[in-house]
Design a protein that fits this description.
Elements (H helix, E strand, L loop, with lengths): L9 E4 L2 E5 L12 E5 L4 E4 L6 H11 L4 E6 L10 H8 L3 E3 L7 H4 L13 E2 L5 E4 L2 E7 L8 E5 L8 E5 L17 H12 L5 E4 L5 E2 L1 H25 L4 H8 L8 H17 L3 E4 L2 E4 L2
Parallel strand pairs: 4-5, 5-6, 6-7, 11-12
Antiparallel strand pairs: 1-2, 2-3, 3-4, 8-9, 9-10, 10-11, 12-13, 14-15
Helix pairs in contact: 4-5, 6-7
The structure holds zinc ion.
Zinc ion binds next to loops.
């Protein structure tokens, strides 16, 4: 299924189609996948970037059917800006995650956020929107961003539910957790939360559908434990800066991902500091024990 063409809708099951946006990158894999849920009326999940060819492709996929809601998992720029032209043209409400609670000062320098996101309705944990034969219910999954939501579709094929996981669980890579908005402890808690659910499959914003999702989530939790163990071992050997640690932890990394790796290590260090295991002075981290 990875031979997707941007803009060409692909039906994944009776109620779910996806449209790939033309924004591939080292951070988005093949691009952002927009999901259309429903048959006679629709929800559009994460409409993606506001670029003319992509928005035109979305309209073609919608094919005149009424759009009941435009749902947003989180407000990174590759997910939410397309909500505005779509809402303007269809009259559908923008519902989903809250605008970011952090002040613009804290995240203002971070160009990855969509600061113009303006939902008509914020969905809280357990709240739903619905249409003909479908319901989408918010599952709060903070961590990748503080406002991240997943959406559960109980009316999936075989009577088993699907979960639209946004960037919380992706089909090709682990999520980036970038402080101050990204929070490693929250991210890990949100992964553990998914282990207690019985979803049949995940539809991530990037990468192919995930069957047997519990196994993937367990693997992701194991990966984070491993990274944490690596950091503690490095710091036990000697205090270090974050770039030092990244150079030793991510051998052979794509240089374009170096900064993202630094953010991820920082997220682990903040979590470890909050638990009393490490301290920082003048950008040098060391172990407390
Ligand atoms: Zn994101």
């Amino acid at each position: 299924m990875s031979e997707q063409l941007p803009g060409v809708p692909e039906q994944l099951e009776a109620l779910v189609a996806r449209v790939l946006a033309p924004n591939p990158s080292p951070f988005t894999y093949t691009g952002t996948q927009v999901y259309l849920v429903g048959t006679t009326d629709l929800a559009v999940i994460d409409p993606g970037p506001d670029t003319p060819a992509h928005i035109e492709a979305l309209f073609a996929a919608i094919a005149g059917r009424p759009v009941r809601a435009i749902l947003i998992t989180h407000t990174h720029r590759d997910h939410s800006p397309g909500s505005r032209p779509l809402a303007a043209a269809t009259g559908a409400p923008i519902v989903g995650c809250a605008p970011l609670a952090l002040s613009d000062d804290a995240i203002g320098s971070d160009a990855s956020f969509d600061h113009d996101y303006a939902p008509d309705r914020v969905l809280r944990e357990g709240e739903s929107v619905g249409g003909a034969g479908w319901t989408l219910t918010a599952v709060a999954t903070p961590g990748h961003t503080s406002n991240h939501l997943a959406f559960a579709l109980p009316e999936g094929q075989d009577g088993a539910g699907a979960l639209f996981t946004g960037d919380h669980v992706m089909g090709w890579s682990t999520s980036i957790v970038s402080p101050p908005d990204g929070d490693m402890a929250a991210y890990i808690a949100s992964l553990e939360k998914l282990l207690h659910r019985a979803d049949r499959s995940y539809y991530p914003a990037h990468g192919d559908p995930v069957e047997n999702p519990q196994r993937l989530v367990r693997g992701m939790l194991g990966h984070r434990k491993q990274r944490e163990g690596q950091i503690l071992r490095l710091l036990r050997a000697s205090p270090a800066t974050i770039p030092d640690m990244v150079a030793r932890m991510y051998i052979g990394i794509d240089p374009r991902l170096f900064v993202a790796a630094e953010r991820s290590v920082l997220a682990h260090l903040i979590d470890l500091r909050d638990r009393g295991s490490v301290i920082e002075a003048r950008e040098i981290w060391s172990i407390t024990l």
